[in-house]
Structures are given as structure tokens and as C-alpha cells.
Amino acid sequence: MIKHRFFINRIDSIEEWLESYRRKGYRLADVKVSTGRHEFVKTEGKDTVPKVRVDYRVFKKQEDFEDYLSLFEDCGWRHIGGTRTNGLQYFEQAAPFASDEIFSDSISKAKRYKRISYMWLHLSVMYIPMAVVLHTSGAFDFTKLWHLKELYYTPGLWNMEGMHFWRAFLFETPFAAMRGFGGLLFLLLILLGAWFGVRSLFWYLKERKNCN
């Protein structure tokens, strides 16, 4: 059975979703994080289905990633999904001596959200200078989003009537959309990155508070 599901920042919701299938006797056999593809295999019962836990880590070097996986293997957890660069790492409880959690303490568990928060905020900040350069160069003019008529450059367009107006209007609309809504896309990316970053930081602080 294959299910597609993407997760933005709530790792707990990933684990809860996977646990709901485990209780039904489905084992997570494979994960493609980049496409949200989760492949489940039906087993005899939930008692034979290993638990799955999720971490968030990104590594610059392959050696560091391999050391990270080896550490979990030594603790009885087998890596079943995730790569060095895509962040979400799925682990399956593979040994009888493995604990129910992949973290030794609650603070380490909470730090998953801190790393996710950094990722989203980094993306948001990264788009700001790009948007400023495009705006100052005239490629996008964010102020015209509030004055949509200014996105149309055809002389006398708004004084035309009938078929002449509609022909000129429909011809230029795709170009006007690129001028205005290309800038809007950058603005949305900045705001969404900031929103998800703040939300992840909220979950981090909440879990840290619960640790005290």
C-alpha cells in the first residue's frame, strides 16, 4: 500500500500518522521524502510491526551522515528513509534492546524543531536580498500589486472599447501577470518561510518548557 503525504514542520504528527498504520498491522517498508511517498506492507499484527521514529538532520559531508546512521544502528535503530540533504530521517526499531525513543532525553527531542525552524528562517532570509535586487532593477515592482492597471504597458489600453480593448487586454495579461505576480511569488515565499520558521520555533520552545 502506497500513501503520499508531506509534512511541513510537525514531526510529532508524522510519528502519530505512522503509528496509526502500525496499529492496523502495516509496516513502513520504504520512504521517499522528496515526493512524500510512503510504502506500507501488511503484516500479521501490530505486535510484529516495528515502531518508526523521525529525526531532522542535514549534513554537509557524507562521512558525518554515515557516522550519524552508525550511531543509531548501534542503538538498535535501522535507517529506512531520508538522505544526507533532505532533512527528515526515518528510523525503524530493529533490535530487541532498542528503546521506544531514538533520543536519550526530551531536550534532544525538542531540538528537532529548532533545526527545522532554522531551515525555514534561513530560506526566508535568503529570498529577501533576491527580492530587493529584482525590485530595484525594475524586474518586479511590488508597489504595483496595489495598482494593477500599472502592470499593463499598452498605450491607451484603458481608453479602448469593445473588441479592441479585449484583444489588447488579453494579449498583455500574461506579461502583466509575470511582472506583478512574479514579485508576489517572492513575497509569499518570504512570508511562508517566516511563518513556518516561527511555528517550528514555537514547538521547540513548547517542548523545552515541558522538559522543565
Automatic annotation (TrEMBL):
Species of origin: Faecalicatena orotica
InterPro entries in the cross-refs: DUF2812
Protein name as catalogued: Uncharacterized protein DUF2812
Transmembrane residue ranges: 118-140, 176-198
Keywords from the UniProt entry: Membrane, Transmembrane, Transmembrane helix
